[in-house]
Amino acid sequence: MAAMKELVKGTDRYRHFIGGQWVDSTIKEWIEVENPATEVVIASVPKGGEDDADRALVAARAAQPAWEALPPQARGQLLRDLARLILENRERLARIVVAEQGKPLQEARGEIEGAALYLTYAAEEARRITGDIIPSDMPNEQVWIQRVAHGVVVALTAWNYPAALMCRKIGPALLAGNTVVVKSHEGTPLSALEIAQLSTQLDFPPGVINVVSGTGEGMGAALVRHPIPRLITLTGSVRAGKAIFRSAADDLKLLRLELGGKAPFIVAEDADIGAAVRAAVLSRFENCGQICICNERMYVHRKIADEFTARFVDAVKALKVGDPMALVDVGPKFSKAEVEKVERMVAQAKQAGASVLTGGGRMQGEGFARGHWYEPTVLSVNDNQMAIMQDEVFGPVVPIMAVTDFDEGLRLANKSRYGLSAYVFTKDMRRLMRLVRELKFGEIYVNRPGGDAVHAHHAGLRDSGIGGEDGKYGLEAYFQKKTMYINYA
Ligand code: NAD
Fold this sequence. Notes:
Blueprint: E1 5-8, E2 11-14, E3 16-18, E4 21-23, E5 30-34, E6 41-46, H1 50-69, H2 72-88, H3 90-101, H4 105-124, E7 132-135, E8 141-149, E9 152-156, H5 162-175, E10 179-183, H6 190-199, E11 209-212, H7 216-225, E12 231-235, H8 238-248, E13 254-258, E14 263-267, H9 273-285, E15 295-301, H10 302-317, H11 336-351, E16 355-358, E17 377-380, H12 387-390, E18 397-403, H13 406-414, E19 418-419, E20 421-425, H14 429-438, E21 443-446, E22 461-462, E23 465-466, H15 471-476, E24 479-487
Parallel strand pairs: 2-6, 9-10, 9-12, 10-11, 12-13, 14-15, 14-20, 15-18, 17-18, 20-21
Antiparallel strand pairs: 1-2, 3-4, 5-6, 7-8, 8-24, 13-23, 16-17, 19-22
The structure holds nicotinamide-adenine-dinucleotide.
């Protein structure tokens, strides 16, 4: 069998993983993978297209019936084994994530542990794939409702957590008896291919896990419009989600779309200011602000706004930005296009009246001549309609707005087309109870920073998507239900 990669002019050139084999693309074009901290090309991957998509989906379809016929516990055991191999390779995989994506090494280690956890959590569900037996209205009859797999699942993932997002999808998909074709974002394809390579050390039947590479518009779109997959699960932008929705309509494919966010961070006048500051910093600047649940806009009660803002700005100024392989708080933005987008958004916010409290430009000086560096930035604003308050930044920039009271904070927080996550700091239980119905977001963090649990539910409302992942509800998406009417008269 061909190897996963070969050395071409000094850098690794990877292949697709299809049907248990490393295969060359039918298109002789490659995508260069760049290190965001240095702009050095670290590898290349095939720019796959229609033919490669077809080969991968055919392999996945061929493998699916036998995979689903295995006892769930056997599927779960393979997921556990893959998780173990991922943890054994934690350091190597974390360094690959840093090199392709740019997050600080200690965060990348956490990502790899998270990737393994998604698999082991899915495996734990193996003995709980239950159905229902319900009484029939007819004599001598029972009605069975069973959960069965969809068939082939296409998993498309974003660049911000390339290893964890893959495992978040393949864990439940495979446990449920589906086979998968995974495509990571074209800028961060390496960790997924390396995880596929680890799977070859185990007894996964060929075709159960397939990992291909290519652009969204090329390979991604080809996978979505192909007739084989029944379920498409995407983590990515609203733009891609809508394009996929349109394409999948032709043959009514099922969709799970985990899209962007614009999380409000509300600080009431009774909040523990120190705790709120720490949570606000972490929830904005982790992964250089590139998390869908990041704190994207802050509403602070006017009575504490000056104190909160001063302490927050001090904490932001203390963040260490630099080489993500070193012990730093913030690495580079993921790409040139991404850092330019942030630059444009800050310029536009300034024009619209925002004032810069700290940061506001590219990082300067030694170590920042190459790479996509942007300063941790805090803006003061007083208009909720500004683009910086309405559009996802997905970077190290956060606007703060003072509000007259908690009700105004809630009202402005809800004025958003996004509905993924929200943060609230208050000690008032009556206010907390109001959030359940009045704050229109799928994931609400109260008096703590972000960070979702593998057994909870991660789902966005409105433009943030349809579906949801994790826990029992996330797993449910990978099953369809079949009802049998059993007459034994
Ligand atoms: P993206 O939409 O550009 O890409 C996501 C994936 O979809 C990639 O694999 C890409 O190649 C593919 N793709 C793009 N266009 C496609 C098309 N037309 N057809 C098929 N596939 C297509 O998103 P991104 O820039 O990688 O990720 C950033 C976005 O992801 C942000 O908005 C962020 O908030 C969101 N995100 C959401 C979650 C969540 O759980 N809700 C988690 C992480 C990131």
